[in-house]
Write a structure and sequence with these properties.
- The complex is a heterodimer of chains A (203) and B (160).
- Chain A is mainly alpha-helical and 203 residues long.
- Chain A has a domain at 16-109: Rna Polymerase Sigma Factor, Chain: A (Orthogonal Bundle).
- Helix content of chain A is 64%, strand content 2%.
- Chain A has eight helices and two strands.
- Chain A has helices at residues 23-31, 35-57, 60-77, 87-105, 133-150, 153-164, 169-176, 180-202, and strands at residues 114-115, 121-122.
- In chain A, strands 1-2 form a two-stranded antiparallel sheet.
- In chain A, strand 1 (114-115) and strand 2 form a beta hairpin.
- The radius of gyration of chain A is 19 Å and the shape is globular.
- Chain B has a domain at 1-54.
- Chain B is elongated.
- In chain B, 8% of the residues are buried.
- The chains are: A mainly alpha (203), B mainly alpha (160).
- The interface between A and B is large, with 47 and 32 residues.
Chain lengths: 203, 160
């Protein structure tokens, strides 16, 4: 990985038929020195990882820092990737570990705020203006995010990976490093807790 | 059906992993219990809602910042490389210094070893000197014997 990135322009990534290449092929190419493969992986995963890490922090800046740290690790430790697991599982696991390390470093205060579409944090608890269906849906999503954040971390991340990211149980099990049976139980329990919270909000 | 058993089976029901008989049994239970039915419907709706959520996007300058970090990392690595190479140079210099000291100390001790050789030479000479009298005495003995022979010879000759 001696290739210099001094002239790296992530924005001008121009892989040859990048959509034809799987993540696993891209990382293999990157390990062999193809910097465009790295750019493509960054493009594919920066938002996904950001959304994932946001479920740990609910803080844009911190979440972005963790994602950057994850992508830098991808740059410096790509050769550690073994083809026995999906690349997505591997990179999510790195992001999770980085997020947990960061959480341990500084405990993030629980916030009652929630996200807007552009990721800004607002508090809509006192929002009583009449709402059309679209806005109601947006509010429902924000409430969902809010209550999801209030779930214990173990349940929250399992539900997020399953219902937002639509990962398989096997992938979630590998990312969170927890047996599949426990993952299923946490998803089930997390969904019930979320439904109960939203029900009490509606009432 | 017990509440705990019911809750444990919601996931299988929503995943469609129940067999026909189990599914019918579960659905008939739901039809008999409105609160449970409503819970399952809420969960279904929440899942649908979660899937519809627009993902957040990273900041516009995210890639730029990442690039800067990677660049500084590359520069640090270069610094590290130069550090390692300079330390390697230091090792080589230290090694050469030690070698030089050894050579010097060898040269320094060389005269002593010459003295030892000189001492050995002197000792050998002394040995020769010590041994030489005995050699002389042998010669003298031989001479005496020769003289005796001559004497005896003259005695025989005289008899004849």
């Amino acid at each position: 990985m001696t290739q210099s990135l001094l002239n790296l322009s992530l924005k001008s990534s121009a892989m040859d038929n990048p959509f034809k290449l799987s993540d696993e092929k891209l990382i293999a190419r990157f390990v062999n020195g193809d910097i465009n493969a790295y750019k493509e992986l960054v493009k594919r995963y920066q938002d996904k990882l950001f959304n994932f890490v946001m479920r740990y922090f609910n803080n844009r800046e911190q979440a972005e820092d963790v994602v950057q740290e994850t992508l830098i690790k991808l740059y410096t430790h790509a050769h550690y990737y073994k083809d026995i697991a999906l690349f997505s599982t591997w990179i999510y696991t790195i992001a999770k570990n980085n997020a947990l390390t960061e959480l341990r470093k500084n405990k993030v205060k629980k916030s009652n705020s929630m996200w807007t579409d552009d990721g800004k944090l607002i508090d809509i608890a006192s929002n009583e203006i009449p709402l059309d269906e679209k806005v109601q849906n947006e509010i429902a999503v924000e409430k969902l995010n809010k209550y999801l954040l209030e779930l214990p971390e173990n349940f929250r991340m399992a539900v997020y990976l399953r219902d937002f990211e639509e990962h398989s149980y096997e992938e979630i099990s590998m990312i969170l490093e927890i047996p599949i049976g426990t993952i299923k139980s946490r998803i089930n329990r997390g969904r019930i807790m979320l439904a109960e919270k939203l029900k009490s909000y509606k009432e | 059906m017990d509440k705990n058993i019911f809750e444990d089976r919601i996931l299988d029901y929503l995943d469609g992993s129940m067999d026909f008989k189990e599914r019918k049994e579960f659905e008939s239970f739901l039809n008999d219990n409105d609160s449970y039915k409503s819970m399952v419907n809420d969960i279904k709706n929440n899942i649908k809602l979660m899937k519809s959520v627009e993902p957040l996007k990273v900041s516009k300058n995210f890639e730029e910042r990442l690039q800067l970090k990677i660049e500084s990392l590359s520069l640090n690595n270069n610094d590290k490389k130069s550090f390692f190479s300079s330390s390697a140079r230091q090792w080589i210099f230290s090694g050469l210094s030690i070698f030089g000291i050894l050579v010097l100390s060898f040269l320094f001790f060389q005269p002593n070893s010459n003295l030892v050789i000189a001492d050995e030479k002197i000792q050998n000479e002394q040995k020769t000197l010590i041994e030489s009298p005995s050699k002389n005495s042998n010669d003298e003995q031989i001479k005496e014997l020769d003289q005796l022979d001559n004497f005896n010879g003259s005695f025989v000759n005289d008899k004849q």
